[in-house]
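Protein Record: Sequence and Backbone Structure Tokens
======================================================

Structure line: whole-number tokens from a learned vocabulary of local backbone shapes, matched to residues.

Purpose: to set a sequence beside its fold so the mapping can be learned.

___
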Amino acid sequence: MKRFFNILLSWFIIAFLLIGLFYLYNVLNPKHYLYLGEDAPISTELHPIVEERKNILISEARHIGIEVIITEEVRTMERQQALYDQGRTSDGSIVTYAEAGESYHNYGLAIDYALENNHGELIWNIEYDGNNNGKADWFEVADIAKQLGFTWGGDWTHFKDYSHLEMTFGLSIEQLKQGYRPKEEIKDVIGEPK
């Protein structure tokens, strides 16, 4: 019986390792990602697919009577650290839990948005219904964004970031810090807009 258990355990370990290798191959598949090395340059503009989908989001929201204003795109490391320090070592409320290098904004893969109300004022009121259809405009925008392939910070359980939208392309922050970047033509990872 002990021999049978050892053989079974060995097969489970082999299966686990094969599954792990398969996962790593698919996550770090070179057809989807570029490895630029530990000193990879930090993005100065949005990834082209994020830029494209951002523009579609603005257009589709406008089509249903919602004015979306993009308030943040790419963030420098200095700006990210200043936002992280807010409410900790500088005045203000805590607005992020991501230090410099730990935000998808730092890699051109995230945007933040607000709404423009009927008086032309920028608002962050998630209950506002400016197009008077009985639905909160904020959530309508989030739904459009999710159909376009964005992940919405309002769906997070640990820290609700209602103004945040990101496209990770399957890359973790750790992989981005190591120098991996999504290729410009990897729509097959996130799909076409629905």
In short: The longest strand covers residues 110-116. Helices lie at 2-27, 48-63, 77-85, 137-147, 173-178, 187-190. The beta strands are 33-35, 67-72, 110-116, 122-123, 151-152, 164-166, 180-182.
